[in-house]
Amino acid sequence: MLSVRSRVASLIAAAIVLSVALAGCGSGSGGYAADPAPPSYPPASASASASAPGRTASPGGITPTTPGLASSAPSAATTTAPARGGLQSGDKGPEVLALQKRLSGLGFWISGSDGAYGETTQQAVLAFQKAGGLGRDGVAGPLTLAAVKRGVSVQPRTTSGRWLEIDKARQLVLIVTNGKVDAILNTSTGSGQAYQQGGQTYTALTPAGQFSIFRQVDRLDPGPLGDLWRPKYFNGGIAIHGAGSIPGYPASHGCARLSNAAIDWIWSSNQAPIGTRVWVY
After folding, report:
1. What angle do CA 152, 124, 122 make, to 5 degrees?
2. Which string of DSSP letters, residue by residue, matches 162-205?
3. What's the Cα-to-Cα distance from 212 to each of 71, 216, 234, rounded to whole Å?
């Protein structure tokens, strides 16, 4: 009797995962005014990332030593003006240019080093903050600038071949070739919250596992939960795609959101053609 119950439980669990995959993910660039409210959000620390199951500490990883860093970091839904000496969206000048060049040198993708703190610079700062265990607000305040100067190393899990790695714990997408990280991008994956579709209740999850890109749409793709910009599908209705909102916390219905500029770059430079392997962990 126990074996029958175990089989039934396994079938139910598999059905839940499959239903999440088939349900697809959240709105694309056309519908992000109503992001799900963020779950409880303690900023991830470098030590927490290092101690997570199946992970090893990244060489050069940042462990913040400033007292009160975690408790004083802004909430996921709040953007705080930087203290004196900080940089934020809208700023221009040589300090921004130096920040852009340093982030690019560390592997964090930016559309170009032009000295203007625009969307892709903000996204790169968010990605760096996630990698370094800092408060996630996309603002290069004094703590972030000091950390950028020290640097941070992001280690992939794969060692051979071409992969997209989606790190749910740190909310990052890594583009990896033969164990070398080519680019690090900010992402937002499944929020873990319940949502309604077609009279059914689903949970917004990005299932872990190894997949490959099997379909792509080079335009705005209407979906059951909204429109997705230039999606590349790798697990049922779950894709990496462009979006108008990529916050510092999991907020999608299951997809891995990237900025519209980032997905445009992935398309234009052929970073993830059909068949590219994807590892979600």
Report:
1. 135
2. EEEEEETTTTEEEEEETTEEEEEEE-B-B---EEEETTEEEE--
3. 39, 11, 5
- Would you state the structure tokens that stand for residue 280, as one six-digit string? 């979600």
| Amino acid letter, residue 57 | A
Write out pLDDT tens, residues 246-264: 999 999 999 999 999 999 9
69: DSSP letter: H
Q: How far is CA 196 from the centre of its chain?
A: 24
Question: Is the whole model's pTM more than 0.85, yes or no?
Answer: no
Sign of the CA dihedral with 194 first, then 196, 200, and 206 last: negative
CA dist 172 → 48, 126, 178, 249, 250 (Å)? 16, 10, 18, 10, 11
